[in-house]
Fold:
Amino acid sequence: MKRKVGLLGGTFNPPHLGHLVIAQQVLQKAGLDEIRFLPNQVPPHKKSDDTVSADQRLQMLEGAISGNPDFKIETIELQREGPSYTYDTIKELTNRDSEIEYSFIIGGDMIEYLPKWFRIDELMEMVHFIGVNRPAYSHETPYSIQFVKIPDLAISSSIIREAVKNNESIRYLVTDEVYRIIKEEKLYG
Structure:
């Protein structure tokens, strides 16, 4: 029987409690064996923010998931130059390990954006999509995806970056370890 692994992609700039809630809820409700956080190098739909390095984002992500044996990090996209397309990632992962059944986890914002994804029709044949609700977004799509209802949390990395920039508290929006790294490294200030 194939191992069921959920992939949660993002910039994780910084990783926050919303990411962890999504991962834990999907792990349990979709009956997965493991969640792999998939930090990307350059997402095709966002501008690059080079004020925080990939190594710093990875360090924060490692801190965020420490203590949960069901959470791992997959660095395949950080090892690749240029834009990170899910199609290329899934193709490489399934070629590398055919004993794993991958699911790709997306929020409401990406559910709406699915028709614009690179090679989406081929990608739909390669991987199972799991969508989760996100405040202010619908989960309407012409594509067949599994929907998992999670608690609504309106936490975003951009809100956290803005709060740090304005010298506002981010405590309880990120884990203690991520909070420590942001403070010690003087990130986003």
The mean pLDDT is 92. Strands lie at 3-10, 34-39, 71-73, 100-107, 128-132, 146-148. The chain has seven helices and six strands. Residues 16 and 111 are 20 Å apart (CA to CA).
